[in-house]
Amino acid sequence: MRSLRETQQGFAAALLSGVPERGTPGIRADGISPTQRLGFYRTNVFGNYLNALRTTYCAVERLIGSSCFAYYAQRFVRETPSRNGDLNRYGGEFPDFLAGSPIAAELPYLPDVARLECLLDEVFFEADSTGLDLQRLSQVPAEQYAKLSWRLHPACRLLASPYPVRRIWQLSQPDYQDESPVALNDADTLLVRRDGHDPVVEAISLAEFTLLAALRDGVRLEQACGEVHHVPGDFDVGACLQRRIGDGTLTDFALPAEIEQSMSPL
Amino acid sequence: MNAAALTRPASRTIPVRAGIGLRAPHQRQILAERPDVGWLEVHSENYFARGGQVLHFLERTRSLYPLSLHGVGLSLGSVDGLSVEHLALLKGLVDRFEPGLVSDHLCWSAVGGRHLNDLLPLPYTEEALAVVCRNVTVAQEYLGRRMLVENVSSYLQFSDSSIPEWEFVAEVARRTGCGILLDVNNIYVSSVNHGFDPLAYLDAIPPAAVEEIHLAGFDSNGVCLIDTHGKRVHGPVWNLYGEALSRLGPLPTLIEWDTDLPALEVLLDEARKAQDILDEWSLPEAARALAA
Asked: In Å, how far is A81's CA from the nearest CA of chain B?
């Protein structure tokens, strides 16, 4: 008699390999061949993975067609084990997989469209924020603002691409109307965030992208401004901060300990 | 409705009525129309979010209906044991939403860290029984409450199996104190696929352990019945449901629908059919005889 571990390992290997010669561990025939019986489960399992990928990467599927999508999804599933009992978490590596696939030579923007869809998914399920503590902010002396380390809302992501991925993603939405041509050499710097509960994709300037990326990485405002300084063009940091506090992109801040201690307790 | 009423949870117990599975495309309609259905069940994993819309909606739904959390990913039959991360996420939901029932399946879906994310059948052996009982006990202790374990449909049997499935299910409940979520459609599907008597299955189930019944539709691939949850409940399954109630008494009954999801009204219609049968079995015996 096989141990339960041997049965489960053998079953998983036979199911995922898709090769009948790998055997059908201890499955009774009972009028239908064990290979065929295992095939019923293989159909279900691969169907579940395909549906999970389709749910996240619907723009990619529309761009390449459902049979081409199914082909790449199947190859991805064979190479990429699921590591989680929650099927909703499957497929985060799909954009990198596409980047290494022949289709990326034909449609070089495709991996970044997939990255954008992956971020939209992350943003949808991310944590909520209690909102900015304005009273605490009002306690900070104005001359110390530069020393604040601003924090982005948990449901914010940044994406830079050499391709116009936002426009390409919009074009693949079922209800999108604008038929004007896409200039494939237009680079994108994007902020993905939630408006209420709905994920939105905002095109932002390279300077704003640089500022938000620096803040996301935890640096002080003065240092983030230094990084923005290297970006050509005019950029009003104050107006940007005001707008991003207003729309909930910036939801918290940290102060150096010495300033925190000097502030009166609330 | 005022804010206080919205934040007060509906009953913490699942009523002996028909309920439906809550699926995302029906969410807004249910909140807007508040259909007369006894309770709702959701797939726990669909709410393993850190925040955002799904949890917000579930919060609002919970204020209106009794709720059951039904998992598909705990892998209670895994020889490797349970994922602590998965259990922790489930406990977070249990603590926040105070569900009337918490359930998962008598199956396995992961081995060696690789998840197949499907409800895979177990060989019914003493070893598998010990593994399942250990995992159910761990889950119940972690969650601090009784769980229900559901029988699954299967399309194959293992030559090593030495215990009939119905005895295996009953023994898991006896050894761990867990409840049974009896899926009548799954019994029917497996009985056709493996050629056993579904009534013998029902006869072996200890009535006191059963806390919930599932009903759903199946499909056929030409050689086997497949539990797709994509159709109305089939006639023979309705009949078997009556047989189940005659043995177990009236129980909370859920209409499940996961693929090819139809309009909400179709699910509510199926729930009404289940409710009619439940009402019949809720009558005292004399009244039932009279009605017949």
From this structure: 6
- Domain CATH for B48: 3.20.20.150
Number of structural domains chain B divides into: 1
The pLDDT tens digits for A6-58 are: 999 999 999 988 665 556 779 998 889 999 999 999 999 999 999 999 999 99
> Could you tell me which chain A residue has the CA closest to the CA of B109?
A85
For chain B, report the end-to-end CA distance as a whole number of angstroms: 43
Tokens of A49: 């993975």
Calpha distance A4→B77 (Å, rounded): 9
**What is the residue whose two structure tokens read 């859920």?**
B254
Burial level of B58, CB count in 10 A (0-12/13-18/19+)? buried
Identify the CA nearest to A48 among candidates A96, A5, A72, A82: A82
B215 within 8 A of B253, measured Cβ to Cβ? yes
| A4 close to B (CB below 8 A) | yes
B123·A45 Cβ contact <8 A: no
Residue of A nearest to B154 (CA): A41
Number of residues assigned to chain A? 266
CB contact under 8 A, A27 and B89: no
Q: Does A12 touch chain B (CB under 8 A)?
A: yes
Closest CA to B205 of B239, B160, B240, B173: B173
Q: What is the mean pLDDT of chain A?
A: 92
Question: Nearest by CB to A83, which of B72, B113, B118?
Answer: B113
Check: CB of residue A123 under 8 Å from CB of residue A199: yes
Domain limits for position B176 = 3-291
Q: Cβ–Cβ of A128/B51 closer than 8 Å?
A: yes
Partner residue opposite A82 with nearest CB, options B45, B86, B117:
B117
Average pLDDT, chain B: 94
Q: Which residues from chain A sit within 8 angstroms of residue B120, using beta carbons?
A: 11, 41
Partner B contacted by A124 (CB < 8 A): yes
Cross-chain Cβ contact B117/A34 below 8 Å: no
Strand B18-21 to B40-43 pairing: parallel
A29: exposed, middle or buried (Cβ count in 10 Å: 0-12, 13-18, 19+): middle
Query: Rounded to whole angstroms, how far apart are CA atoms A3 and B44?
Result: 31
A11 closest CB neighbour out of B89, B120, B131: B120
3-state secondary structure of A100: coil
pLDDT per residue as tens digits for the range B200-216: 999 999 999 999 999 99
Strands B67-70 and B40-43: parallel
